[in-house]
Amino acid sequence: MRNHEIDYRIFGEEMQYVEVELDYNETAIAEPGAFMMMDDGVMMETMFGDGSQQNNSIFGKLLSAGKRMLTGESLFMTAFTNVNQGKRRVSFASPYPGKIIPLDLSAYNNRIICQKDSFLCAAKGVNVGIEFQRKLGTGLFGGEGFIMQKLEGDGMSFLHAGGHVFKRDLHPGETLKIDTGCIVGFTSGVNYDIQFVGGIKNTLFGGEGLFFATLTGPGSVWIQTLPISRLAGRILQYGVGARKEEGSILGGLGNILDGDGKW
Asked: Which domain holds residue 150?
């Protein structure tokens, strides 16, 4: 194996964290802000890029960091290395309610395509790159699915997604139509495209957007029930407007009881 071989355990139900066990000189990499806790003897280092063998040169590190900027991620990643003899543990927490998905890249042809905000942490040596969806329609209308992350290597990687997460295996030629925000990731053999919903009533009154993604097998797809963008939109909707589920009198009374003080 080119990547460091790490053991792990996942704790919790709705607000999970993953505990990674490191042998001497083993390293895990993580997104800034994912760190939760670590044993004494683990050294933390901030670095450009992902520390993979593909980015050893200065140019490679700058290129990797630049790609991460395009996906909206930080220029830096954090490496956690066990510098003492014996096993040490470091833990990474999920940023919002959902599930942590462990993926052994060697079991998926050493390559997974995932949403740009779903990567949590991985074994050192995993290359965290960028994947452009090259079709014109995908680029213009793909929304969350246009620029994605690409995880390459033969080690463990961990993704995080909102709500309930499940895996769907697609047979050759089998197509799944899905909201772009509900896609967590898929294997390299899956074809990704964008399709117009169609129908004047669907377009004007459907409330589901004008386009959805189509995923065609063969391959595996991981799907989330609650994208963070949908959760944030619903919180904003209820935070700034009147209560939709209550009448005007009850709505005002509810606001007073909540301490809002507004009718």
From this structure: 7-239
Residue 251 lies in a domain: no
List, for residues 18-77, the tens digit of each pLDDT value.
999 999 999 999 988 899 999 999 999 988 766 665 555 666 666 655 666 665 666 788
Q: Are 30 and 77 a contacting pair, CB within 8 Å?
A: yes
Amino acid at 223: I
Cβ count near 79 (within 10 Å): 16
| Residue 64: alpha-carbon gap to chain centroid | 18
Please state the rounded mean pLDDT for residues 217-234. Answer: 86
Report the 10 Å Cβ neighbour count for 126.
28
CA dist 261 and 41 (Å) reads 52
User: How high does pLDDT run on average in the chain?
Assistant: 79
CATH code, domain carrying 124: 3.60.160.10
Half-sphere exposure in the Cβ direction for 226 (13 Å, CA): 13
If one counts the domains in the chain, the total is 1
Whole-number Å distance between alpha carbons of 258 and 242 = 13
Strand order in the sheet with 7-11: 7-11, 17-22, 88-93, 35-38
Q: Are strands 156-162 and 183-187 parallel, antiparallel or unpaired?
A: unpaired
